[in-house]
Amino acid sequence: MITDIMTTKLKHITMTLLSLVSLQVVYAQGLSADDIIRKADDKSRGLSSEGSITMTVIRPDWTRTITMKTWSKSREYSLVLITAPAKDKGQVFLKIKTEMWNWVPSIDKTIKIPPSMMLQSWMGSDFTNDDLVKQSSIVVDYTHKILAKENVRGMDCYKIEMIPLPEAAVVWGKVIMWITESGFDQWKAEYYDEDNKLVNVSNSSDIKKMGDREIPTHIEMVPLTKKGQKTIMQFDEMKFNTQLNEGFFSQQNMKKIR
Amino acid sequence: MNDIRLAWRNIWRNKRRTLLTAASIFLAIFLALLVRSMQTGMFDRLIDITIRSYTGHIQIHKNGYWDDKDINNSMEISDSLMKVIISTNNVDKTVPRLEYFALASFGKQTKGALLTGTDPVKENALTNLSAKITKGRYLDSAGKGIVVAEGLASFLGLTVGDTLVLIGQGFHGVSAAGKYLVTGILHYPSPQLNNQLVYMNLPTAQDFFDAENRITSLSIILKNPDEINRAITDLKSRTTGQNFEIMRWDEIMVEIMQQLKAKTTTGILIIGILYMIVGFGIFGTVIMMTNERIKEFGVIVSVGMQKSRLAVITVLEMILLGLIGTLSGVMAAMPIIVYYHLHPIRIWGSMAQAFTSFGIEPIMPLALKPFFILWNVCFILFLVLLTCIYPIRKIFKLRVVDALHK
Amino acid sequence: MIFKIAFKNVWRNKTRSLIVIVAIILGLTGGILTTSIMTGMIDQKIRAEITNEISHIQMHNPEYLKNYESEFTIAHPDSISSLISKLPGVKAVCSHTRITGMAASPNAAAGIQIVGIDPIAEKKVSGLYTSIPDSGGGYFTGIRKNQIVIGRKLADKLKIRLKSKMVIRYQNNDGNLTEAAFIVNGIFQTSNPAFDETNVFVKKKDLDLITGGDNGIQEIAILLNNIDLIPGTEAALKTKFKGLDVENWMEIRPEMGFITSAIALEVYILMGIILFALAFGIVNTMLMIVFERTRELGMLMAVGMSKSRVFRMIMLETIFLTIIGGVIGMILSAALVGFLHQHGIDLSSVSKGLGAYGFDSKIYPFIKKDLYFNLSLMIICTGILSAIMPARKALRLNPVEAIRVE
Question: Where does chain A show beta strands of DSSP type E?
Fold first, then answer.
C-alpha cells in the first residue's frame, strides 16, 4: 500500500517536473521571431496614443528643432499639431488611412497632399510624408528570423533579420532589427539595399516610463549616404490606449485643435 | 620684279580670258562667303535662342546645386561680390533667380509647381518673358503679384485676379506658406513647363522660402559669346573660395547641343560640295586657258625664254587673277552680308509657322565675321595655286615644234 | 546634219567637253549625295521616335490630354481597337494604361509615367524592345509577376539595375494610394533621355491586379504601314471616332516637325546654290569655249552656215554634253547612295561624338524617287539653259574678223 502511494507520488512529481520542463521548452520555442516583432510593434503603438515629441533635424550647416503634439489610433489615424518654432506653430497634419492633409493657419487653408509630394521630406527631416502614412508593416510585410542574441549599448537584444516578402511594397533588400529581450523595445534597426549596402540606421535609447509602459524615448535616424545628417525624435510625454474616437481625426478638428 | 610687271601686262593683253578666269574665282569666293555666313548666321541664331530660353551663356550655382537642386543648396552673393562678377571682362548682363518646388492650391485643387523668383527687368532682357503673357500684366519690380503658366492656371481653375495659395518647404526646413494675387497668365512653349511654372519677384520668393538674400542660380550673358571659355576662366579666378560651380550653357542644355551638333555635320557637307563645284569651275577655266595659250607659250620658249621663267610668270598671272577675283568677290559679297546682317532674312511659309510655334521669331541673320572672310579668301587662293600645277606641267612638257603647229 | 556636226564637235576637243561633263557630274552627284545624307539623318531620327516611342498616331480621351489625369479613359477600347485594325493602311494597334506615379528605391525616388501594356500586342506596334541591349535584360521574359521594364536613365537615377526591386506608388482612379514592388526585367536605352527617364512599362494585367480593378485604357497607339498614310488614316479616324482626340507624331512631338522644316530649308538653299554655281560655271566655261572657237565658227559662217544654225549647233553640243554628264551623274549618284545605304556612312569623323548626341553616327542615306529625278532634271536644264547666252554671243562674231584671229 505504501508502495502504491509512493509510486503515485513519484508519478505526480515526475509529471510535474516533466510538465515544468516541457512548459519551459514550450515557452522558449513559442517566442518566434514573428512573435518578438509583433510584440515590439504593438508595444510601440498601443491601440491609441497621445503625447508630445521634440524632433531635431541636424544637417552639416544647420539644425532645426520642432516640437509637436501627436494623437494616433490604430495604424490608420493620426493627428500632429506643431507647437514650435514660431513660424511653423499651429500647423496641423492629419492622416486617415493612406491620405494626408495639411492645415496652415497663417493662410487659413487646408490642402490634401498629392501623391507626387508624398516622397518629399516631412518638415525638412529625414522622414518623408510617406513614412508617416506608411502602409508597410514590420510584422506583415516581412519574414523574420532570429539571427542571434547581442548586447547593444548595454541592452541584451534579439537580433532579427527581416526579409521583405516578394510582393511587399518595401524598397529595402533587408532590415535587421534589435529588439530588447526584457522590454520588447525596438532598440536598433539597420536598413539595407539589395546589394547589402547599409543605407539607414536608427538607434533608440533612454528608456523611461511613459504612461502605462516603459519605452525608449530617444530615437536617432541616420541616413548613411548623406554626410553629417540625422534626425532625432525625443518623446517628451506619451500616454497609451487613451480614449480617442475616430471622429477626433477630422478636417474640422484640424482647425480647432490646440 | 620685271616678272610681275610682265605678268600684269600679260593679263590685260587678253581681257576676255582674264575676265572669264577671274569670274570663276569671283564666283567661288562670293558663294563661299554667302553660304558660310548663312550657315554661321543660322547656327548662331539657334544658339542665341537656346541661351535666351533660360540659361544665358554661363550659369553660376553653389557647388553641387546642379546635381541636387535643393533650396538648401542656394547661395548668397553679396553686393561686392556681384560687383566683381559684373565687372569681369566680357560680362554684359546677369539674371539672379531663386527656383524651387512648392504646392499650389486653389479651391479644391492642389498641384506641384515650380516657383521662380527673378528680377523682372533682368529676366525680360534675357528671355523676353513679358512677351509670353497672355492675360493680365507682366511682373513689376515693386509688386507682390505672381504670374502663372496657362496649363497650371487651367488645372487649378484660376485666372487673373484670383488668389493662389502656395505651401512648401523653405530654406533650412522652415515651412513656407503664403497667399498671392495672380496678376498675369503666361503661355510657355514647352507643355511640361506650361503646367508647372509660377513666376514672382525675387524678394517675394525669398520671403516665401525664408531665404533672405539667397538665390539658386545666376545667369550671365556675355558681350562676346565666342570668348566664353575665357570668361569662365576669368570668373573662376575671381571667385575662388566661394565654392561655386560655373557651367557653360551647353553643359546644362545637353539635349539641344545634340541637335546642333547634328546640324553642323550637314553644314560641313554642304560647304564641302560647294567648294568642290566652284573649285572645279576654276580648274576647268584654267585648263582651257592653258590649252588656248599653248601656241603662245611655244612662241615665247622658241624665242629664248627659259621654261622655268615662263612658269613663274604664268603662276604670277594666276596669283594676280586670284587676287582680282577674290577682291571683287569679297567686295560684292560684303554689302549683301552686311545688309542681311542688320536686316535679317524673313523666313516664310510653313517653316515660319514652325518657328513661331516655339515662340521664336522666324528670321535668320547673316553672320559677319572677319575671321571667316579671311579664311575663305586664303582657301580659294590656295585652290588657285593648286590649279597652277596644270599649266606648269604643260609648260615643262612643252615641245616647241608641236606647240607652234597648233 | 547639224546633229552630226554637233556630235563630232563634242568629240573633237576632249578636254573642253570633259570639263563641262565633269562639272555637271559634280553638281548632280554632290547635290544628290548631300540631300540623301540629310534625308537619311532626319529620317532615321523620325523613324526611331515613331518606332520606339510614339507610333504614327495616338488616340486619347480629350479630357485626358488637358492634365493627364488617368480617370479620363477611352470607352470601349477593345471594340475601338479592333475597328481601327481593320482600317486600310493600319499595320498594328495596341492600347496602354497610363498613370502618373512615383518610383522609389532605397536610394532615391522619381516621378514617372506608368505604362500598362500587353507585351505581345505591344511588340507589334512598338520597337522599344529592340532597344534593350543584350546586357540590358529582357522584355517581360519568364512568368514572374510584377515585372517592370525601365529606361537606363531612370535606372541610374534610382541607382538600381537588372533584377533589382523598385516600389511603384500611384493614385488609382478612385483616388486611393496604391503601391507595389516590381522587379526590373529589362533596361532599355533610346536616343531620348527624357523618355528613358520617365516611362516605365509593366503588364496591364499585373497593374489591374494591384489596383484591384481595371485601370482603364488612356491611350491607343497605332502603327501604319507607311508614314505617308498618316493624313488619310487620321482623317478616317477623326470621322469615325468623333469623341476621341487623334494626333499624329508631329503633333505629339512638335520639335521633330521643327527640325524637319529646318533641314528642308537647308536642302532648298543648297540646291539653289548648286544650281546657281553650276549655271554660272557653265556660262563661264561655254563663253571660253565659244571664244576659243572664234576662228572655227567664223569659218563656218563665212562658208555659208546661217547664224541660227550656228546657234542650234552650239546648243546641241551643250545638250549632248549635259545629257552625257547628267546620265553619268545620275548613275554615279544612284550607285553611291545605294552603296552607302547598304553599308552606312560613318560621319563620326566629320562631327566627333555625333553618336553620343542622339543621332546615330552611322547614316543610311536615301532619296525619294521623285526628288532624285527632279533634282537631276533641274541640273540638266540649268546646264542647257546656261549655254544660251554664250551661244548668242557666238552669233555676234563678225565672220571676217573671226577668220583673222590668230
Answer: 48-58, 63-73, 77-84, 92-96, 99-104, 109-112, 142-152, 155-164, 174-180, 186-192, 198-210, 213-223, 230-240
CA-nearest residue to C177 within chain A is: A98
- Residues comprising chain B, all counted: 406
Closest CA to B205 of B149, B143, B163, B155: B143
- Cell numbers for C321, please give them: 554634253
Residue keyed to cell 520617365: C198
Contact B178 A62 (CB under 8 A): no
- The neighbour count for residue C149, using CB atoms within 10 Å, is 26
**B357 — pLDDT class (breaks 50, 70, 90):** low
A88-117 pLDDT per residue, tens: 899 999 988 878 899 988 888 888 888 777
pLDDT of residue B363: 79
C208-228 per-position pLDDT tens digit: 999 988 999 999 999 999 888
Contacts of C43 (CB under 8 A, 6+ apart): C366
pLDDT at residue number B59 = 94
The answer to whether residues B380 and B322 touch, using CB atoms and an 8 Å cutoff, is: yes
Which residue, B267, B284, B283, B273, is CA-closest to B372? B267
Residue B111 burial (CB count, 10 A): 18
Best probe of the B interface among C25, C35, C67, by most B CBs < 10 A, is: C67
Low-confidence spans in chain C with pLDDT less than 70:
347-361, 398-406
Secondary-structure breakdown of chain A: helix, strand, coil percentages, each rounded to the nearest 5: 25, 45, 30
Condensed to tens digits (0 to 9), the pLDDT of residues C111-156 reads 899 999 999 999 999 989 888 888 888 898 888 889 999 999 999 9
CA dihedral C344, C30, C43, C327 (to 10 degrees): -90
CA distance B227 to B230: 5
Interface with B, mutate which of A91, A100, A108, A117 (most B CBs under 10 A): A117
Contact status, residue B344 vs residue B38, Cβ threshold 8 Å:
no
Nearest CA-CA partner of C116 in C200, C220, C221: C200
Kindly report the average pLDDT of chain B as a whole number: 88
Q: Helices C388-395 & C307-343, crossing angle to 10 degrees?
A: 160
Three-state secondary structure call for residue C180: strand
From chain C, the residues in CB contact with B355 under 8 A are 258
pLDDT bucket at A23, cuts 50 / 70 / 90: very low
What is the rounded CA–CA span in Å between residue B261 and residue B250?
11
Q: How far is CA B9 from the centre of its chain?
A: 45
State ipTM: 0.77
> Sorting pLDDT into bands at 50, 70 and 90, what band is A20?
very low
The number of beta carbons lying within 10 Å of the beta carbon of residue B71 is 25
Q: Which three cell numbers stand for residue B271?
A: 560647304
Q: Three cell numbers at C200?
A: 516605365
Helix (H, G, I), strand (E, B) or coil at C226: coil
Secondary structure of residue A186 in the 3-state scheme: strand
CB contact under 8 A, A106 and B177: yes
